[in-house]
Amino acid sequence: MICDDKIKINSYSGDASSQYWTDVTNGSTINIWSLKGVGSPSQDKFEPYAPKNFSITTVNSKPFLSWQHRTPVDDYWTGYEVYRCVESNYPPSYNYTKITTIGKTVTSYYDSNLSLGAYEVVYYKVKTKNTSEVSEFTSQIRFGDPAAPATPQNLSVSTRGTNPLLSWTRAVNQNIKEYVLYIRENGGSWFERARLSGSASSYTDFETNLTNPVDFLEYHLKAMNIDNEYSGMSNIVSVIGITEKINANNLKQHLDIFTEGSQKITDYKISNFPNPFNPTTKISYQLPESGNVSLKVYNSLGKEVAELVNGMKTQGRYTATFDASNLSSGIYFYTIQVNDFVQTNKMLLVK
């Protein structure tokens, strides 16, 4: 500290009986208490130095804290205070609690009673103390490696305006730093769509406008903890088969293009969109098990006009496009046959 650019604090005696200042103009040392004529100061007037070289090692899976006192012999201190903060959420609250006070001759602490949950970590920091004053804290140090986060649960998709709205059940007490949302189109490669706060539980995909043509979009989600470890992949949700531009006012009636829930498919389904159509429509179907799939289109007289699928398919969701450019307006039927499942649906071509 500089006073009037001419005098600065130099030192004070270890027994707190004197405090010395230096006259920077000539280097002479002054006993400031004598200068003031107030006699010897009380020892609780001096703030001690903070510990240095604070570190944590592991002993028998427990944290062993150690530090050093700063070198000036003129410091006056009586001991150290150790503070601890256990966290399971990100960002941390840093709500520290003093767990012990240690005498001045001890510069370490073994936290043998610490017990952490699978997703918990603990932060420590230390202060120096004397009779009534304390130093600044050391820097804080983290101990513990949280388990990789659990797989996100209950991912679902609906709409917000004309955009897909993804929602999921937010995990708590798992030190999740971020959620990472992935997307792929038409069964291609997955790529990252967004990184979201660990406190998030929904995301609106403004990059996808559902009034514009899309084919087959899928989403899944992963969680990432404070050590950048990833969870497993969530269930997949899908947006299927808008094949021509539609009016935003009509979007709600097409919510059957959304599939919500887990990757596990439990039954057969088939539908087409749009219907009526001109000149193309997309037929979407799902298979709960592998099988030889036949998908054919017939006119109103029962004559086959197109064979869209003929071959083995594994469990999953698929789409096939029916192009009626060379056909006349009217009612058509499409029939799927796989294993013991057979279903026929009607569609209308309007030109």
Q: How is this structure best summarized?
A:
The protein is an all-beta fold and 351 residues long.
Give your account of this protein's structure:
It contains one helix and 26 strands. It has 351 residues and is an all-beta fold. Helices cover 1% and strands 49% of the residues. It has one helix at 32-36; strands at residues 2-3, 7-12, 19-23, 29-31, 52-59, 62-68, 79-87, 97-103, 108-110, 121-129, 141-143, 153-160, 163-169, 176-185, 191-197, 202-204, 216-225, 237-240, 258-259, 269-273, 280-287, 291-299, 304-313, 316-323, 330-338, 341-349. A five-stranded antiparallel β-sheet has the order 15-14-17-18-19, with no helix packed on it. The chain has a four-stranded antiparallel β-sheet with strand order 1-2-3-4.
Q: Helix-strand pattern, N to C?
A: EEEEHEEEEEEEEEEEEEEEEEEEEEE
Low-confidence stretches: 1-20, 32-41, 241-246, 252-263
Strand content: over 45%
The major sheet is characterized as: 5 strands, antiparallel
Report helical residue fraction.
under 10%
Number of helices: 1
Q: How many beta-strand runs?
A: 26
Shape: rod-shaped
What is the subunit arrangement here? single chain
Which structural class matches the secondary elements?
A: mainly beta
User: What's the Cα radius of gyration?
Assistant: 36 Å
Amino- and carboxy-terminal Cα gap: 89 Å
Q: What labels describe this entry?
A:
rod-shaped; 1 helix; mainly beta; 4-stranded antiparallel beta sheet
What's the SSE blueprint?
Layout: E1 2-3, E2 7-12, E3 19-23, E4 29-31, H1 32-36, E5 52-59, E6 62-68, E7 79-87, E8 97-103, E9 108-110, E10 121-129, E11 141-143, E12 153-160, E13 163-169, E14 176-185, E15 191-197, E16 202-204, E17 216-225, E18 237-240, E19 258-259, E20 269-273, E21 280-287, E22 291-299, E23 304-313, E24 316-323, E25 330-338, E26 341-349
